[in-house]
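Annotators were shown the component list below and the corresponding predicted structure, then asked to write short factual statements about the assembly.
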Amino acid sequence: MLELKNVHTYYGNIHALKGISLVVNKGEVVTLIGSSGAGKTTPLRTIQGILRPREGSILLEGEELTKLPPHEIVKRGVSQSPEGRLIFARMSVKENLEMGAYQRNDKPGIAEDMEKVFKLFPRLKERIGQRGGTLSGGEQQMLSMGRALMARPRVMLLDEPSMGLAPILVDQIFDIIRELHSEGVTILLVEQNARLALSVADRGYVLETGEMALSGPAKDLLHDPSVKAAYLGESH
Amino acid sequence: MLKKILNRGEIIAVALTAFLALIMGGWQIMLVAVLAGILIGLAAPHTKNAVPRAAAVGLGIGLVIVAITSFHNTTLNTLPGQEVIPPESSTLGTYLIALGLCVGFATLTAFIHNLHDDRKRQIAFIAMLGVLAFAFPFFEQCPGLKWDNFNFGDMSAGCSVKSNILWIGPVIVMFIYGLQAMGLNIVAGYAGLLDLGYVAFFAIGAYTMGLLNSQQLGNQIGSPNLFVWGFWLVIWFAAAAAAFAGLLFGAPTLRLRGDYLAIVTLGFGEIVPIVVKRLDAVKIFEPISLFIAQIMGKTGDAAAQASVCLVGCFGNALDITSGTKGISPINAPQLGDVYTFKVGEFVPWYFVALILLVVSAFFIFRLRASRIGRAWVSIREDELAANAMGIDLVKTKLTAFIIGAMFSGFAGAFYASFTSFISPDAFDFSISVIILAMVILGGSGNITGVLLGASIIMLIDRVLLDRLKVIINGVLQGVVFRDVASGPLSVFVNSLTDATAYKIAIFGLILVVMMKVRPQGILPEQTAARRRPQ
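Structure shown to annotators:
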């Protein structure tokens, strides 16, 4: 479905991604883990076209995304729940969700998806008229994910959904990721909480200072001694 | 003690209208009474007894206003330098009507304000304001209207006494500025792009009207009426020209962010009047015509050279804009052969401006609720997230810029025709700032708020300060310096207390106080969901 081949991305002169390659197959949840500062958000921004890779290519079902502007990439079915949620604070919950469907024109389909989102996150329906900025952190994360789902994405990029949330809310959010997985949504999940991420994912990649250190099925990575030591806080 | 009886909104209403009554006196007692009634109705609490309470408060405030007006008429108005109030405006009948208006509007507004159904409330408010806006020129023109001499175009012709203290002229200008404030609200309020050179589009709209609906260009080439295309046609060209200028200015600059964009727009705002100033002696003759003449072998012979002259040969440089002298007269609109608008006959102008304003407000309101409107707001809220949602940032910002410019173009075209005279001085940087102040004061992102901001600032600018100056001078000469009426001391004090000279300082003070007390503006932006509850 989504494939990154030897992608190099720079922030000015800083070489942030040093040739990473990654594959997400249809219906899969793939996670990208790594310590903070490893450059986990950079691949997502590169996929969405907000950053431009200097080298390498990004393919969505064989179609080259590398040269396309962000709105064209969204149109082709890549949506994102960005790091820090980036809710539109002074727009209502409903308007936030409508923004997620910005590139779509099918009114009945949008209404249908909005119902789906409300089924997934009943809390949002209660808050429908409220301003996004007045929601709690957990609700904002739900809104951000709901907003990404409104694009009816072929691939959904999820950046740090657990960030800054209480453990009980994190569990809720990850239950929803499992639910989405069972419904067949393709997800690329970037997460610092490696244990949790690997527990919901099919496969995982480990990013270390801009390079892929390790990859494999999530179960194997959970038991990999080096991963255990570095990211799961276990000694062996 | 006052606080126990009245709530905060009512106290503001009292203070404001009492002040207005004091300085306007009998001339505008009806307007002040209606304004007081509306304010009291809006300030009424959402309780069961709101309507009777508003009526009672309205009666009390009405009495206060009548008392103050009467004081103005009998005391202040006898001071030197005042325009004598006609007897019609200080009769018991006038006072009773004013009292009735105050109570009536307080009751009506409180009733509407307490309607539960949002939709009904909105429609009722719009209907009330519509009736008021329609009736305004009929009761505003003079204290006593004589119907036997009635003239729609110039209602003051039917007045028993004519007044210089008319509000209709300032109100028309207020509509023009309100239109601009709504346009700037799209750019600065919705899309969050700080535009400090918004006056450029106003100037372009005005000069399009000035050039294509006057004899300015025609006189240069010997057929005066060649470029007199009529108001109704040219106003569209003016809007299109302004919109095109928006595209031209926006395309290269909208990639910039925040402060940088503000600086560039500031530059455009300065460039346009300067270009206009310099377009008074255009010679395309010199390099190009000479060159062509040379190619055709017509050198040396002045007459031969003139035969291939393009524009502005020899001493006859083409004067496009008349530079600092400005263009005048600019033709007024015509309604077929039936009626031609005239300078000073305000009522037809008033209705054209009103229609322009109302249609634009409706259009902008619908735009905000549409897909593109949401996109503008989302860019203001978070550019990165908007980009991630699939919004084409440059295109969307450019749309805001173009549509905002278009409304300023309409305003400029109307302004040029209304005043019949334009010069570069009318498109100073301070206009950009004043329009921005209207947006911020009223409530950036809220159309009603922006219009309110425009009304407040224009009323202070065009009406209140002038009246204040007359009254302060009257008090000084008639009470304080009675014996030195023409002495150097009184001249000094009079110029020191000239309220109009403090205009910009007063606007600045208003902005400072607003930022401290209510930074979101008088009427803050509402989310769409509050407008359309589920």
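Statements collected:
1. DSSP finds ten helices and ten strands in chain A.
2. Chain A has a mean pLDDT of 90.
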